[in-house]
Design a protein that fits this description.
alpha/beta; six-stranded antiparallel β-sheet; 17 strands
Length: 345
């Protein structure tokens, strides 16, 4: 984490998979028998005191100020059991509300009044909607940021989560997404859906280094070895290297197009994908912008969504704006990014 901070990472969230082992009913931080709630009632305040203490220590000793603290991880799930191999803990809805309120008190007591509370990082969009509607009004008022995980993939009520966040005046993160498709096709498809329907202000990939197709870079975390870079690494780069913090997301007109605008530099970014089995030409009409350069080259970058192929290839001069439009050929399962300078919104 400190290395990430030194290399420019500027947003940090502290989260808990499970209370400390000694706070659990069975002293097992993997969960309870049958996936039931596992935190001891007399440790509800201790759990939040522990999190607030870590947050204060990080600021004082590591130079890391957490933007937010999340006391749960997929808390409504019943797969956190005593036979599990990953830390986790089920929290009933009422307990979640109590913990959220306690966390605000403990953060304030530690002088961390500016640190925001995130909740509840449920595994799916549908569960996020259900959980939010079950929290008490006081807990909702103490939540600053709704977090949700993207493991419903192409399904689920993304719009419902967005509407809950919008209606309550909360920011919204997709705080965890991962899949085992090393080609990047699933990642791209679901990221487009999230940007179009969920409207998160942050989108987080779970494990950059992992095996079995899950990692952006193949790695064996137990053996501490690193393998090859997956195509999905370059697929994600089509977004992360071009759509930067503070840019405005625009309506691209479809689930396969995302547009973003940099008002300071008057730059338009378009990310588009062809997930079909056949190639196709796509034409982009910029006539609704107040000013568009004409007869200018549009640099583009393309990545093949496959087990191998073009990774992140730039072509700077072969795409030209004619009038207010430009076109580009997309091979099957290809994602491309275009950057257009001197565009007036």
């Amino acid at each position: 984490m400190t290395n990430a901070h030194r290399n420019g990472a500027n947003h940090f969230q502290l989260f808990s998979n499970s209370p400390m082992w000694w706070m659990c009913k069975n002293h097992n931080p993997s969960g309870a028998s049958g996936g039931a709630e596992n935190i001891q009632s007399w440790n509800l305040e201790n759990h939040t005191f522990y999190l607030a203490t870590i947050a204060k220590y990080a600021a004082s000793n590591w130079g890391i100020t957490f933007d937010s603290v999340e006391a749960f991880n997929e808390p409504s799930a019943d797969y956190w059991t005593d036979a599990g191999t990953q830390e986790g803990c089920h929290f009933d809805y009422g307990t979640q509300s109590t913990v959220i309120n306690n966390l605000r008190t403990e953060l304030n007591n530690q002088g961390l009044t500016s640190i925001r509370i995130a909740a509840s990082d449920e595994t799916s969009y549908d569960q996020a909607v259900t959980t939010w509607n079950q929290l008490t009004s006081s807990a909702k008022s103490n939540v600053n940021q709704i977090g949700v995980h993207g493991y419903e993939y192409g399904d689920g009520n993304r719009i419902g989560v967005y509407n809950d966040a919008l209606g309550a005046g909360k920011s919204l993160w997709n705080s965890e997404y991962g899949d085992s498709d090393a080609t990047g096709e699933n990642l791209v498809s679901n990221l487009f859906l999230d940007i179009r329907r969920l409207h998160p202000t942050a989108w987080v990939y779970w494990q950059a280094l992992d095996s079995g197709g899950w990692g952006l870079i193949d790695a064996n975390n137990d053996a501490k070895t690193i393998g090859s870079v997956a195509q999905k690494y370059f697929a994600l780069a089509q977004f992360t290297r071009h759509i930067r913090e503070s840019m405005m997301i625009l309506d691209g007109g479809g689930d396969s197009i995302v547009a973003a605008y940099d008002s300071n530099n008057r730059k338009l970014v378009i990310v588009a994908v062809n997930l079909n089995s056949k190639g196709q030409n796509l034409t982009f009409d910029l006539s609704k912008f107040s000013s568009v350069p004409t007869n200018k080259s549009v640099p583009r970058w393309y990545t093949k969504l496959a087990t191998s192929g073009s990774q992140y290839v730039e072509s700077a001069t072969d795409t030209i704006i004619v009038g207010s439009k430009f076109s580009s050929y997309f091979d099957s399962r290809v994602i491309q990014t275009f950057e257009i300078s001197n565009v007036g919104l």
